[in-house]
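Postdoc handover notes: sequence design on the structure in folder B. Input tokens:
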């Protein structure tokens, strides 16, 4: 069967746009084909000169943040549960560090891909309950965990969901979508139908970071402190293959700036073992060098290895952990290559 290229041909004054923004007309056409329409949109896309959206616009954001604030003040035990991919690891790291900053009694759990499967399940809820956990905080998962959340509520636990995945639904007899409600105490997901947040394409770490912005404001912590997490938001956004437009584009741009001067010992170690210590880090390095090292932990062992690397406070130990992640990624590549040979 003969294959053909189909050329998208959105209309615009490409030469005028090229002259105004000092770019090639071909680049102007490519940008226009990405549904970037007005000159204001072009300005945002190319230069990122606009304010990030207000996190308070997200449905249940204030409710969820206040629930976690109360839990922290009452010293209730909180457990963060994430996914095991890069987005899940970054989300978990952001929330764990932020809650620790707020003096929370908090720990974390990342599912084992082979033992637990994806996301929170009833065994993990029971495990948390037996450990004395009173509050579950999910990130990069939870929107579809309807039965585990119902089980947690029956045990008397508080559940706050932060996620970015599609809302589960079923079709009724007329073919109309009926979204399945969660009994969680707060559900923070910009893809909810009645959520007014203007950009629903954030990754899980992006939603977690927005949550931290609100939480820090409740504890009178300088909002500038949230910027230390932007490099992890950028990593998750690129590795989760989110659309690099609008707010995501700005988060990645600013995150890369932070990553190039990172103070995180684990990240510095990972850069060094991948021979990137003296290079300018770009989106390519996130998606094809650093991200795969982090992702390999969840595929071949347990993603807790990656989170432990980012939380490491001793540089020599961080280097050993970084080498371990790099070796796991080499093993993953070898397995992938061998599978492709058959």
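Designed sequence:
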């Amino acid at each position: 069967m003969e294959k053909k290229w189909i050329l998208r041909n959105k209309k615009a004054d490409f030469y005028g746009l090229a002259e105004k923004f000092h770019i090639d007309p071909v680049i102007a056409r490519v940008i226009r084909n990405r549904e970037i329409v007005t000159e204001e949109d072009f300005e945002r896309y190319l230069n990122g000169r606009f304010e990030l959206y207000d996190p308070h616009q997200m449905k249940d954001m204030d409710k969820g943040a206040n629930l976690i604030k109360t839990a922290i003040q009452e010293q209730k035990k909180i457990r963060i549960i994430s996914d095991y991919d890069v987005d899940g690891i970054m989300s978990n790291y952001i929330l764990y560090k932020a809650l620790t900053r707020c003096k929370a009694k908090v720990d974390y759990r990342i599912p084992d891909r082979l033992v637990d499967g994806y996301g929170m399940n009833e065994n993990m809820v029971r495990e948390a309950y037996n450990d004395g956990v009173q509050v579950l905080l999910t990130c990069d998962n939870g929107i579809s965990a309807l039965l585990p959340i119902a089980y947690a509520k029956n045990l008397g636990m508080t559940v706050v969901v932060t996620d970015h995945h599609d809302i589960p639904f079923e079709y009724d007899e007329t073919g109309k979508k009926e979204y399945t409600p969660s009994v969680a105490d707060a559900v923070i997901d910009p893809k909810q139908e009645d959520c007014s947040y203007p950009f629903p394409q954030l990754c899980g770490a992006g939603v977690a970071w927005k949550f931290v912005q609100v939480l820090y404001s409740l504890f009178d912590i300088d909002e500038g402190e949230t910027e230390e997490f932007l490099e992890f938001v950028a990593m998750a956004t690129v590795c989760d293959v989110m659309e690099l437009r609008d707010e995501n584009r700005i988060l990645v741009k600013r995150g890369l700036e932070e990553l190039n001067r990172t103070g995180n010992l684990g990240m510095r170690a990972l850069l060094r073992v991948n021979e990137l210590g003296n290079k300018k880090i770009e989106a390519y390095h996130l998606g094809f060098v650093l991200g795969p090292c982090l992702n390999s932990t969840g595929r071949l062992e347990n993603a807790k290895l990656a989170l432990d690397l980012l939380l490491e406070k001793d540089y020599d130990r961080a280097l050993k952990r970084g080498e371990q992640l790099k070796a796991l990624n080499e093993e993953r590549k070898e397995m992938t290559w061998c599978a492709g040979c058959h």
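Context for whoever picks this up: The longest helix spans residues 315-340. Don't rerun without checking with the PI first.
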